């Protein structure tokens, strides 16, 4: 009995003296540089594909105030509108990924503001997705389906143009959310310490452009073309430098880790 008791004590002593397995080292986690580069390339990809649906499709198919001419354009080049739908869908799918990546990149600065930016961008994404239904509606109205015979040709043309005009107002809605997102991102970039502050200032300029286009087009629809020029210039000046910085330079990992270890 004594021998068994001593053996159990020895086993307990040995197990208690065995060092526990250390937790996974921090260096094994995904580097913020990876998140930054991926986000940068995704943002640049959006820059390449988004103008097709946002600029080329409306300018090619829509004749302002002329429903019959617009319907003729869609009838002859319906594939353009369908490609616009594909382009929009790729954009809002990528934006979902960007919501997460940008949140991770700026979480060390402020978890609260990073969440605000992420939710604002996610809200924009939802509006973009719903807004694609306006393009589908226009295609359905001009599809020549038998159940549409209760409407006259002129009525169908007018309804299709109305749907396309509604799509443009949907753009103004998601631009308001996007302006909020860029304004918060601009502040986070400026305060981060691991991105150049000038990029935050420029992002603020981009935010102002989107908000001006959104609210200006609601309040003064006759000046929508002028506001569109404003947002085009401010978007290039405000957003593109940050996109290129993410894709080429990434992020200062040392300063990012230092900021992440600071109490917030």
Low-confidence stretches: 9-28
Q: Which bin fits the share of residues in helices?
A: over 70%
Mean pLDDT: 89
The overall strand count is 0
**Rg, nearest Å:** 27 Å
Taken as a percent bin, the fraction of beta residues is under 5%
Number of domains: 1
Helix count?
9
Question: Can you summarize the main beta sheet?
Answer: none
Q: Report the end-to-end length measured between terminal Cα atoms.
A: 58 Å
Shape: elongated
One letter per element, helices H and strands E, the order comes to HHHHHHHHH
The assigned structural class equals: mainly alpha
Question: What does this protein look like?
Answer:
The chain starts with a helix and ends with a helix. Mean pLDDT is 89; it is low at 9-28. The chain contains 9 helices and no strands. The protein is mostly helical. Helices cover 81% and strands 0% of the residues. Helix 2 (32-61) packs antiparallel against helix 8 (224-248) and helix 3 crosses helix 6. The protein is elongated, with a radius of gyration of 27 Å.
Question: In summary, what is this structure?
Answer:
By secondary structure, the protein is mainly alpha-helical. It has 9 helices and no strands.
């Amino acid at each position: 009995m004594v021998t068994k008791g001593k053996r159990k004590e020895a086993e307990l002593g040995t197990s208690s003296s065995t060092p526990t397995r250390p937790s996974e080292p921090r260096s094994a986690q995904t580097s913020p540089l990876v998140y930054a580069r991926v986000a940068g390339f995704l943002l640049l990809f959006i820059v390449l594909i988004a103008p097709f649906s946002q600029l080329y499709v409306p300018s090619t198919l829509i004749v302002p105030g002329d429903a019959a001419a617009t319907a003729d354009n869609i009838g002859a080049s319906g594939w353009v509108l369908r490609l616009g739908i594909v382009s929009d869908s790729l954009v809002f799918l990528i934006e979902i990924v960007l919501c997460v990546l940008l949140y991770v990149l700026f979480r060390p600065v402020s978890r609260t503001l990073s969440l605000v930016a992420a939710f604002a961008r996610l809200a924009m994404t939802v509006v973009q997705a719903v807004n694609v239904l306006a393009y589908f509606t226009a295609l359905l109205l001009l599809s020549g389906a038998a159940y549409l015979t209760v409407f006259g040709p002129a009525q169908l043309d007018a309804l299709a143009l109305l749907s396309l005009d509604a799509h443009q107002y949907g753009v103004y809605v998601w631009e308001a959310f996007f302006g909020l997102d860029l304004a918060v991102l601009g502040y986070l970039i400026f305060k981060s310490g691991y991105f150049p502050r000038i990029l935050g200032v420029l992002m603020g300029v981009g935010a102002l452009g989107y908000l001006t286009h959104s609210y200006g087009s609601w309040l003064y629809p006759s000046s929508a073309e002028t506001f569109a020029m404003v947002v085009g210039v401010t978007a290039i000046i405000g957003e593109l430098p940050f996109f290129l910085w993410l894709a080429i330079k990434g992020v200062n990992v040392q300063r990012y880790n230092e900021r992440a270890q600071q109490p917030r």
